[in-house]
Each structure stands twice: as structure tokens, then as C-alpha cells.
Design brief:
The protein has about 150 residues and is of the alpha+beta class. The chain contains 5 helices and 4 strands, in the order αααβαββαβ. The radius of gyration is 20 Å and the shape is elongated.
């Protein structure tokens, strides 16, 4: 990936609906080479898709909770059980198996605190292999795109 590819990716992360002509202008290419580069980035699996970014507040999912989950009696089976159970939780945005104090870190969106309490008691606390849960509430997001640094010119 060179500097032009990075500029293409950064521009598409900011606005995935850019026309090829507008994208080409932003990155300093003519439209044909720009389109070829985008197609190559897609073929190489660097760009894996395009999606709409939804305003969570507009659809009444105003509370983002990061839930740290520790698995009881560490084993492959318990980790698989927790991972599979977490993947079916309503409002789950992302979930990662992590190292450190917790074993899983789940990002969950809900309408409000009482909705989170309901989700916690009805879904997360019912997973047998869960030993400990710690909830962290987001005050506001800081960034929403991958930090691709451009080399100095």
C-alpha cells in the first residue's frame, strides 16, 4: 500500500458514498487509475465492504456499554460457550477475546440504563461460564475510522 492507497482509504472511511470522480479529485488522480486502485484494494481484501453509519441516538440506542467478561474455570469449552452466547446478544456491536484482567470485551448499545440492566440480567448473567462482569459506560466516542498514517512527503 502506498500513500495514494492510504489517501483513498482515508477518504472512503470519511465518506463511503464518494463518487469515483470526487474520490479521484481528493486523492490527486484521474478517475480511471483511481477506480483501478479501489478495485485492487477490494480484490486484495483491504476494503471489505461499504456500509451506512447510523446515528445511534436517532434510533434510540443512546447508551454504549463496554462489558468486560471473565470466564470461570478457563477452558476452550467455556471460552467457546461464552463467545457463542455473547454473539447472540441483542445490541452487540463488537466483541473481542482479549488478554488482561478480562477474557472478553463486548461493545453493546442500548436505549438507556434500564435497558442495559434488562439485557445484563436476561442475557449476560445467564451464561453459565461467566465468572465476573465489569461494565464501562461510554461518555462519547472519540474516533470512528482506522488511523492510517500517511508517510511524510
Amino acid at each position: 500500500m502506498d500513500a495514494i492507497d492510504r489517501r483513498i482509504i482515508l477518504a472512503l472511511q470519511q465518506d463511503g458514498r464518494l463518487s469515483n470522480v470526487d474520490l479521484a479529485v481528493r486523492v490527486g488522480l484521474s478517475p480511471s487509475p483511481c477506480l483501478r486502485r479501489v478495485k485492487l484494494l477490494e480484490e486484495r481484501g483491504i476494503i471489505t465492504g461499504y456500509q451506512a453509519v447510523i446515528d445511534r441516538h436517532a434510533i434510540n440506542l443512546s447508551l454504549t456499554v463496554f462489558v468486560e467478561i471473565t470466564v470461570a474455570r478457563h477452558s476452550r469449552q467455556n471460552a467457546a460457550l461464552v463467545g457463542q452466547s455473547l454473539s447472540s446478544i441483542p445490541g452487540l456491536v463488537a466483541c473481542h477475546m482479549v488478554s488482561g484482567d478480562a477474557d472478553f470485551l463486548a461493545e453493546i448499545v442500548v436505549a438507556d440504563l434500564s435497558s442495559y440492566e434488562r439485557l445484563l440480567t436476561e442475557h449476560i448473567l445467564t451464561i453459565e461460564a461467566v465468572e465476573q462482569i465489569r461494565s464501562n459506560f461510554s461518555l462519547r466516542p472519540i474516533t470512528t475510522s482506522l488511523p492510517l498514517t500517511l508517510p511524510s512527503a
